[in-house]
Amino acid sequence: MTDPNRITLYYSPQSRATGTRVLLEELGAPYDLHILNMKAGEQRQPAYLAINPLGKVPAIHHHGELVTEQVAITIYLADLFPEAGLTPTLNDPLRGPYLRWIAYYGASFEPALIDKFMRREPAPITQSPYADYDTMLGALEMQLSKGPYLLGERLTAADVLWGVAFSWTMMFGIVPKKDVFVRYAERITSRPAFQRISAADDEMAAQHAKAVGA
Prior knowledge:
Layout: E1 7-11, H1 17-27, E2 31-35, H2 46-49, E3 59-62, E4 65-68, H3 70-80, H4 95-118, H5 133-144, H6 157-171, H7 179-189, H8 192-211
Parallel strand pairs: 1-2
Antiparallel strand pairs: 1-3, 3-4
Organism: Bradyrhizobium manausense
Protein name: Glutathione S-transferase
Keywords: Transferase
């Protein structure tokens, strides 16, 4: 009989879903993977589009309900396992800043990142969701300079989201390798949970490439 408390993570290696899997590991959460070979285009097939019409990962199923959007998934999972200590409680003064920086990821960082990657001119500063790229990144640099984590001395689920994101965006040259970003990413990627998932992702990605003859 299927355990209703187990989480199903719709997953592809070396994607944004990696951060969600790392978070699940950090939380000690019971989960199963529903693996999609994105090299073979499985995320665009009808079976998965019926689950997430945008054809994106991560997505999770839990208690019969679907949660998409990396920001929503991060908040949901951390709240689901408060005993892991990765989320400030509702009456914690850090709850507001915690939500701020998680929302900042989806509302400001990702739109700026895509414009930068696509070499698109951003909207005028008064209409842009992220002002401009340097301002958006400067706010993060200022916050992280207080370190070692986004909320100071306390590691939260927000750091898993951001640490993994900084790791791959610096790897691809979209975010500059400033010392504060490098040190921050290393704090997260040196953790056992990230190391385990990174190794598993390498193996899975190689299998996916082999399956499509890449």
